[in-house]
Amino acid sequence: MTEISAAEAPHYPRDYSLTGPEARHAIELGLASAEWYHSDVPRKTMKELMRRSDGPAIRDTALWIGLLILTAAGGIAFWGSWWAVPFFAVYGVLYGSACDSRWHECGHGTAFRTDWMNDVVYHIASFMVMRNPVSWRWSHARHHTDTIIVGRDPEIALMRPPDLILSAAHFIGIPDVFLHFRILARNAFGTVSDEERDYIPEAEIPKAIFWARIHMGVYAAAMIWALVSWSLLPLVLIGGPRIYGTWHMVLCGLLQHGGLAEDVLDHRLNSRTVYMNPVSRWLYWNMNYHVEHHMFPMVPYHALPRLHEMIKHDLPPPNTSFLDGYREMVGGLIRQVREPGYYVRKDLPPTAQPYREEFHAVDLARA
Amino acid sequence: MSDWIVVCAEDEIELEDVIRFDHGGRTFAVYRSMEGEVFATDGLCTHEQVHLADGLVMDDTIECPKHNGRFNYKTGAALRSPVCEALTTYPARVRAGRIEVQIGG
Q1: What CATH code is carried by the domain that includes residue B45?
Q2: What is the domain extent for residue B74?
Q3: What ipTM was reported for this prediction?
Q4: A36, A327, A353, B81: which is deepest, by most CB within 10 A?
Q5: Which chain A residues touch B70 with a CB distance below 8 Å?
Q6: What's the whole-model pTM score?
């Protein structure tokens, strides 16, 4: 690891693009594709945790699809009356929020043991969450290689200094729905940006364009259906939930890394584990165990609670609820508005290995 | 033809598992299938420099622990993105209860 002098402290607002000076700087500092801290887990135990099975994901997916169909049917049956609202409130979250965790787990290939099942659910969920299934697969691989490394990670949701109004607007899908839709449209017309080319291999680009065209074709069909029937119902069923039902995805997602350290190589410093209620954990497929997921991304969602129990002695204490997590994160974000170099640094329990100084020398030098 | 190099005792690798083997400044992954056959490949994923020996062996595949890319460890073929480039494979055998690999120059 290259040592950083305080004189190299970054200028704010930082350049979060993947093609700018911060990207070159991250590579020069040895932050790209670097070695990360891992808690010790015996190989035999890890093999047990990594073991795949189709059962949990088939059960959860059948329940998810079944509830989507039931709530959509209820919403359609009561369309035009207020009785449709509770049906679409649930349908919206199942579509516009649960899609993210299904996209995520099936993208990792850990949800099902049978890979075609991962692929089918991955493509359905990618459509729902309005993400190009090819480019986002590569984007997420980069997110795991270079988690919250500025100039390298394309999935940093909260940049410094944070824009709190914009962050709040994410709860109703603004502006990301329009941004994602514009990217899909651009890809469908055959244009792939330099940023996307930074993490998508050249050979995969035709596939990204193909899938963008499929997605745009479905949206076009929904719009034509809405125009022909002169009803908003098709758009409430298709695409719309990404606006009115996305709040739970954002509620969980912002907690993943919000207010924590940048440019460190220890997931205990840049990721957050939060205890959540069983419904949220089902919608989110246990991604509330986010430190554990980043340390060991090959562990399936249904084994993360067990992994958490095994390594929690080596992790910062988890946040005990949404409220506790938001209190910590929002406090950090408000302070970052005035002091962009600030980050929430959690104390480790006495049983934990210390934060490895050489792994986060960069942020220390910048603090 | 290069020499066969002893890796370990056969029973040091569980069935359907993998270990890391470093030799001559290079790193390899040595596998034992569910049927007890042994195989060897380069030790690092072709996508990023991650040791495959920390990954998961399922049937004929090894899954990279970092990005869940998969290879057929018997042929080296890349099976699942983000890996695109195949792994180099090496001959492996069991002799007198010991696993040996022929890793060449």
Answers
A1: 2.102.10.10
A2: 5-101
A3: 0.84
A4: B81
A5: 109
A6: 0.91
